Structures are given as C-alpha cells and as structure tokens.
Amino acid sequence: SRPRETLRLTARCPPPHPQSVMLQIAATELEKEEAAEAEKQNYLSEHCPPLHLPGSMSEVQELCRQLHAKIDAAEEEKYDMEIRVQKSTKELEDMNQKLSDLRGKSSGPTATRRMSADAMLKALLGSKHKVCMDLRANLKQVKKEDTEKERDPRDVGDWRKNIEEKSGMEGRKKMFETES
Questions:
Q1: CA–CA dist 120, 129 (Å, integer)
Q2: Is residue 174 within 8 Å of 166, Cβ to Cβ?
Q3: How far is CA 72 from the centre of its chain?
Q4: Structural contact between residues 89 and 95, judged by C-beta atoms closer than 8 angstroms
Q5: Using one digit for the tens of pLDDT, what is the confidence trace for 64-112?
Q6: How far apart are CA 117 and CA 132, in angstroms?
Q7: Is 157 left (phi over 0), alpha (psi -120 to 50) or beta?
Q8: 160-171: pLDDT as tens digits
Q9: I need a labelling partner for 9 at 20 to 30 A (CA). Which of 19, 109, 154, 176 fits?
Q10: DSSP letters along the chain, please?
C-alpha cells in the first residue's frame, strides 16, 4: 500500500510560482489598457476633426473670435438651464409643502412630552424598583390669611408706642426674635 501513496503524492502538480502568476496578471492588464487606448483613439478620430491652424495672424484672431462666440453661447445656455432647474426645484418644494399642509402633517419640530415623576424615577432606576411618588400628597396645605381685610384702617395705633418698644438693646433683640 505504501508505493501507491507515494505515487499519488508525486502525481500532483506543484503550486505555481508567484512570479509567473504576477506576470500573467500584468499581461492581462496590459492588454486591457491597450484596448482602451485604441477605443479612445477611434472615438476621437470620429468625433473630433483635426485642428487646422491658419498661418497668418489675422486668421488666428478670427478663429479665436469664433471660438469665443461658441463659448459664450454655451455659457448662456448653461446659465439658462441652471435657472430653469432652480425654478422647477423651488416650485416642487412649494407643491410638496402645500401637499403636506393639505394632508395635515406639519413639518415643524416635534413637541416633547412631559414625564411624570413616577415615569422619570422608573426610567432612572429601572423596572426592578417600584417607587410611587405622589408629590401633591406631600405638599402642605397653607391657608391664606386675609390680613388686609382683618385690619381696620382706623385701627392704626400710637406711633410713639412702637418707637419706645424698639428703642435700646432690648427692643432690637425683640425685633430680631419676632422676625425669625
């Protein structure tokens, strides 16, 4: 059985040499470039006639004037086409805006939705923490006192009494104690 195995190993082809593979690839690329160059020359010979330059200065100037006139005409045509494209683009945008207005869809910014305190805590802490926070229940009830209605404008009192009470260190001490 051993002689057959050695025959099989020797019957295989050796791997190609890297230089020969590179030469084959380069040859195919060179053929593609030559075909592209030939195609380019054929196109130029069909579409662009050879340029005949006149010998005298006046003929060269006349040729330049003709070329400038052709360039000006081409530039005017290009400018007119650009203006038409801009105008049609603007009309298309206006029509799209009218269409969206008719459908009732506004293209303005989306309104942000306010989150409740419970939803905010749930988003921050995750779903594993169940925290119910009723802020309104924690608020203190404050009764409004109508101080102006209780006081009578005729019930002002003696101004000298107030001054005597507040004079001296004891009066100042009382003033600070009542304010805080």
A1: 12
A2: yes
A3: 39
A4: no
A5: 999 999 999 999 999 999 999 999 999 999 999 988 888 886 555 666 6
A6: 9
A7: left
A8: 666 666 666 666
A9: 19
A10: -HHHHHHHHHHSPPPPPHHHHHHHHHHHHHHHHHHHHHHHHHHHHHHSPPP---SSHHHHHHHHHHHHHHHHHHHHHHHHHHHHHHHHHHHHHHHHHHHHHHHT---SPPPPPPPPHHHHHHHHH-TT------HHHHSPP-PPP-HHHHS-TT----HHHHHHHHSHHHHHHHHHHHH-
The amino acid at residue 178 is T
- Here the tokens at position 68 are 């400038």
How many CA atoms, within 13 angstroms, populate the side-chain half-sphere of residue 126? 1
Q: Which tokens hold the place of 16?
A: 């190609």
Q: Which one, of 180, 159, 162, lies nearest residue 171 by Cα?
A: 162
Whether the full predicted model's pTM is greater than 0.85, yes or no, is no
Q: Are 177 and 169 in contact (CB under 8 A)?
A: no
Distance between CA atoms of 36 and 30, rounded to whole angstroms?
10
